[in-house]
Amino acid sequence: MKIPHYRLHNQRVASNSFETPGEVVGWLGAVQAQDYLGALWAVGLRTRSATEGGVEEALADRTIVRTWPMRGTLHFVAAADVRWMLELMTPRILAANAARLRKDYELDEAVLAHSREVFVQALQGGRQLSRNAMYQALEDAGIPAAGQRGLQILWWLAQEGLLCFGAREGKQQTFVLLDEWVPGAKRLEREEALAQLARRYFTSRGPATVQDFTWWSGLAPADAAAGLEAVRSELVHEVISRRTYWFSPVSIEDHASPAYLLPAYDEYTVAYRDRSAVLRPEHAKRAYSGNGIFYPTMIYDGQVVGTWKRTLAKGSVSVTPNPFGPLKKTQEKAFTKAARRYGAFLELPVAKP
C-alpha cells in the first residue's frame, strides 16, 4: 500500500471531484485556517474550478465558518458542524489553558462574564465588528484589551460558542455572534459526535493511525479510541512497520498530475502526528519550523520535495519554487502546470520567472 497515494486521493488533492467549497470542508471535517489566504487555496485546490473569491463567498453566505474548533487553532468547518464540534473538542483546550490565562492575562470568570455581556450587546441584531472594534468595545466597558489580552478573550469566547468570524470587510476580518450567524447548527450527543468525527477523519485522511487522529482532534486518547471503535466496521486496516493504519475501503485512481503546490498548514501535512510517509526526516526542518509553522509545500508523487512562495504584482502572480534538490525536466514541467492552476484560482496570469 502506498500511503501517500491513498492520502492524496482521500483528501481530494488528486481526485478533486467536489463542485463547491462547502462540499470540501464538509468532507474533511475541518481545514486548518490560521493562514487565511492559504486556507482559501486549501479548499480551492480540492474543487474542480473554484476561485479565491468563490471560496470567500462560501464564508460570506455562511456555508463555511471560521473559528477555533480544535487544538486552540483556527479552522474552517461546515456551518452545520460548527456547534457539535465546538462542544466536543474545546472544553479540554479551555480547561488546559484556564490557569495560564488567569496568570498571564488576569482573565477569570468575572472578566469573561463581563466580556460576554459586552459582545452580546455590541453584536446582537446581526452586527459585524472588526477585531479592533471588538477591542474598543472592551476598552469602553473598562476591560483592558492591550498586550494580547483582547485576543485571548476572543479566543476563549469563540471556543465557548459565543463568537465566530463573519465576512471580511475589505481586508479586515469581522466577528459575529455564532447563534445569529448559523442558527441552524446542530448538536450531537457525545458518542455520536465522537463517531462522526472519527468517520470524517479516517475516510478523508486515511490511511492514518489512532495516534494521528488523537493529535489532529486534540481529544483525550480514550475518546479518540472510542470514536474509532464506533466506526471501525466501516473501515479497513493494514499493519505496516507495527503501526495499524485505518482507512475507507476505496479504490484509488491514477493521479491526474504528479505535482501539487499546497498552501501553508495544508491538511496533507498537518493532519498527522507522524509525517514520515510523505516527508523525509532530513527535510522536516525545511518544511516546518520548530515552533509549529508549516510552510507552503511542493508535492511530487506524494512526497514533499520543496517549498514555494507567491509574490503578487499588479495584474499577475509569481510562484517561486524552493526544491530540496535539483528537479528533473519532467518535474519542472509538472510544477509549472501546478503554478498555472494556482494562478487560475487567483484569476491572475502567472509571471514567468
3D structure, described in words:
The protein has 353 residues and is α+β, with helices and mostly antiparallel strands. The protein is 45% helix and 17% strand. The chain has 15 helices and 12 strands. The strands form 4 sheets. The protein has a 4-stranded antiparallel sheet. Strand 11 (303-313) and strand 12 (316-323) form a beta hairpin. Helix 5 (82-105) packs antiparallel against helix 8 (149-160) and helix 11 crosses helix 12 (221-231).
By helix and strand content, what is the structural category? alpha+beta
Termini separation (Å)?
A: 38 Å
What's the main sheet like? 4 strands, antiparallel
Oligomeric state of shown chains: single chain
Number of helices: 15
Which sequence of strands runs across the widest sheet? 9-10-11-12
Average pLDDT rating: 95
Poorly predicted runs: none
Number of E strands: 12
DSSP strand (E) fraction?
A: 15-25%
Radius of gyration: 21 Å
| Helix proportion range | 40-55%
- What is the element string, with H for helices and E for strands? HHEHHEEHHEHHEEHHHHEEEHHEEEH
**Overall 3D form:** globular
What attributes characterize this protein structure?
alpha+beta, 3-stranded antiparallel sheet, globular, 353 residues, 4-stranded antiparallel sheet, 17% strand, 45% helix
